[in-house]
Amino acid sequence: MIKRCMWVLCLGFSSVALAQEPVDMDMVGRIRQEAWHHSQVMDILTHLTEDIGPRLTGSPQMAAANAWTRGQLEQWGLANVHDEAFDDFGRGWEFSAANVEMLAPRSAQLYALPKAWTPGTAGPVEGEAVRVSIKARKDLDQYKGKLRGKILLLDEAREYKPGTKADWQRYDGAALADLQDFNLPKDAKRDRAALLKRYAERQELTRAVNEFFVAEGALAAIGVSGWDNGVIRVGGGGSRRAGESAGVPELAMMAEHYNPLVRALERKQTVKLRVDVKARFTAEGNQPGYNTLAEIPGSGKANEVVMLGAHMDSWHSGTGASDNGAGVAVMMEAMRILKAVGAKPRRTIRVALWSGEEQGLIGSRAYVAKHFAAYPEPTDPAQKALPAFLREPTGALQKRPDYERFSAYFNMDNGSGRFRGIYAQENSAAMPIFKAWLEPFNDVGATIVTSRNTGSTDHVSFDAVGLPGFQFVQDGLDYSSQVHHSNLDTLDHASADDLRQAAAIVASFAYHAAMREQKLPRKPLQQD
């Protein structure tokens, strides 16, 4: 009986908490009407992906995306529209074509795409394929004097494994219930030490291999795509840093075309390939990257800010529709909706379209450091050599004046799937607030608030310095099975209805965060 009374009492407190969080249902209704019946989200996504194309940070296409989004945001009447630089990203790079053919033991067209920041071939090159296995620096010695004029196969043949799950996935009730269970975190110190050791070793080996292949006169290198069924998953290689060797032209090949090459070599057959890659560095020296920002000015609490954002940069093999044109389109559409319905927020609502996310949240981290807070630069050379996202905090957090004026940041970066709720990022005090804001969207599938953390995208830049930063729970669709960082990341894999739903929820969350009396609560800042 006591347990039952306590349970009812807890429910009572929960109901009171929800009742105390005001929800402007008139504004929610206007947002829904605009989002459902006048959506421009697919127009935005179509232009980003099919007119501009992939948007690798530092590339001409990324510059075009910055310019086009600025123009759209200005056209909708947003204020303070501008690009903001972050320093020393590296060299710009782009490619226009890649062709690989097998000339012997038979003729065949092979499908492969170049890794970013690797050079082109300066015309077709032909050479005999050889298999190399380099797992440590000492492995280079066995190949001295043996690679000139060769095309290198970097991986073993990989056994095909039929999928056991559907390519297209949505959360069912049981999965959503499981997501609301909190998993106690493990002590990550030992794991972190191992991670840093592996990272340092991998970076050192990459630099050594790049220099070695060039010095030995190899023509090109080819690795196997990480996914099967003709999907080419490819990211960066070479080096984006001026002054470092970019190595030889390097490509990722679909597994079903790569495996036969290795098997032919294992049968002692001569394999001859022709490779032609049109790729170039667009700048010789290290260049800045750029974030695009705009805002709806507040009134009454205009010096306080609510932010929403998504990363606009993508990899180069597809057109960056799910990763992360979808997020950009939703965030831009949310701002358009707020302007269209005549929202007059108390706090300023600011949208940020980040760059450099794929290389370690570089754009958002730089923005947070400049405007809100950052830890002191490390003096330890080992720490200084690490990218910012892997460094240990050094000293006390240095807060900028705007730190205390910041309310919340909402992010989208898990494909184009429907919102099912939001990760509270262990911010328990925010959970009843989010539950109240989600309730008007329960009928379109957004129902849960989970206390769990989620990572690997730009809200982490805010969370890392103690600012409320959040990512939404999304249906997976085929994000993790087909499109993530692959040549299939194109407009056809985006879900228009899901994006309309997401834009409405983002607009409503941003509006209510901007209108509430207090800023969103903050969880304690974790510092070692």
Portion in strands: 15-25%
Q: Structural class of the helices, strands and pairings?
A: alpha/beta
CATH superfamily of the largest domain: Zn peptidases
Major sheet characteristics? 8 strands, mixed
Number of domains: 2
Individual helix count: 14
Contiguous runs where pLDDT drops below 50 for at least 5 residues: 1-18
Strand order of the largest sheet: 1-10-12-11-15-18-16-17
**Any guess at the CATH architecture of the largest domain?**
3-Layer(aba) Sandwich
What is the helix fraction of residues, given as a range? Answer: 25-40%
Gyration radius, rounded: 25 Å
Please state the overall shape, judged from the principal axes of the Cα atoms: globular
Protein architecture, described:
This protein has two domains: 20-91 and 285-374 and 401-515, Zn peptidases (Aminopeptidase), CATH 3.40.630.10; 93-161 and 207-279, Glucose Oxidase, domain 1. The strands form three sheets. An eight-stranded mixed sheet has the order 1-10-12-11-15-18-16-17, with helices on both faces. An eight-stranded mixed sheet has the order 3-2-9-5-6-7-8-4, covered by helices on one side. 34% of the residues lie in helices and 21% in strands. The relative contact order is 0.17. It contains 14 helices and 18 strands. Helix 1 (2-20) crosses helix 11, helix 2 (25-37) runs antiparallel to helix 14 (496-515) and helix 8 crosses helix 14 (496-515). The protein is an alpha/beta fold and 528 residues long. Residues 1-18 have low confidence and may be disordered.
